[in-house]
Write a structure and sequence with these properties.
Blueprint: E1 2-3, H1 11-18, E2 27-28, H2 33-44, E3 52-56, H3 61-73, E4 76-80, H4 87-96, E5 101-104, H5 112-118, E6 126-129, H6 134-145, E7 152-157, H7 162-173, E8 178-181, H8 188-197, E9 201-204, H9 213-216
Parallel strand pairs: 1-2, 3-4, 3-5, 5-6, 7-8, 7-9
Helix pairs in contact: 2-4, 3-6, 3-7, 6-8
């Protein structure tokens, strides 16, 4: 499954991938990031999903933690522009008819007006999950999705997206949370959450340049 248009992944790459899979390669894309997210959701989910996580499409950290929780809860992730619900996102929400919606991030990421509008797409609750910064927001997502604790937690840098993007769905499928760190130290909120989770194993995503050994030794920020 190749995500995005030719500006993201070229047809040449698609053709090469097609020869590497017995069932071939398929492109899933829309005219923009919002429509691509909606197309991915339409490919994967039937109506009546338990939850849809909604994040801003203008930055990456909130969606990273939300994707892990969504994978764990068998829900979708859709994007908004921050102060509006793009038509493709609205159409997919109508189709999905989710039992609940979780909004990721504070009002600077997703406005109060968008949260109010989202209520029209579900008969259940629309809940905002946010923290003081990207690290704390990931902690709050973990508290919601892993309320009973987790023996293993995945940790990735919050300064960039590739490692957490690749590892997030794996963490979700394993029933583990994804937490973000600055790279060279452990924020207090993350340490507190690891203690609450009762975590005995950390899966650090990326090399030393992304997450240093000091994080594994729980060095505080």
């Amino acid at each position: 499954m190749v995500l995005g248009g030719t500006a993201a992944v070229s047809d040449a790459v698609l053709a090469e991938l097609n020869g590497l899979a017995s069932s071939g390669a398929t492109r899933v894309a829309g005219p923009d990031r919002y429509a691509t997210a909606a197309a991915v959701s339409a490919q994967a989910f039937s109506p009546g999903v338990p939850v849809v996580y909604v994040a801003t499409g203008l930055n990456f950290p909130d969606a990273l933690a939300g994707a892990t929780a969504a994978a764990k809860e068998q829900g979708a992730v859709l994007l908004v522009s921050g102060d509006a619900i793009p038509p493709a996102t609205g159409d997919e929400l109508h189709r999905l008819a989710p039992r609940s919606i979780v909004v990721l991030g504070g009002v600077n990421a997703v406005s109060a007006a968008v949260v109010q509008s989202l209520q029209g797409y579900t008969t259940g609750a629309v809940t905002r999950v946010s923290g003081a910064d990207r690290y704390d927001t990931a902690v709050q997502v973990s508290r919601r999705s892993s309320s009973g604790g987790a023996a293993t937690a995945y940790v990735a840098t919050g300064a960039n997206f590739p490692d957490a993007l690749a590892g997030g769905p794996v963490a979700g499928a394993a029933g583990s949370p994804l937490l973000l760190v600055p790279g060279r130290c452990l924020p207090g909120a993350v340490r507190t959450e690891l203690d609450r989770l009762g975590t005995t194993k950390l899966m650090l995503l990326g090399g030393e340049g992304a997450v240093s050994a000091s994080v594994a030794s729980l060095s505080p920020c």
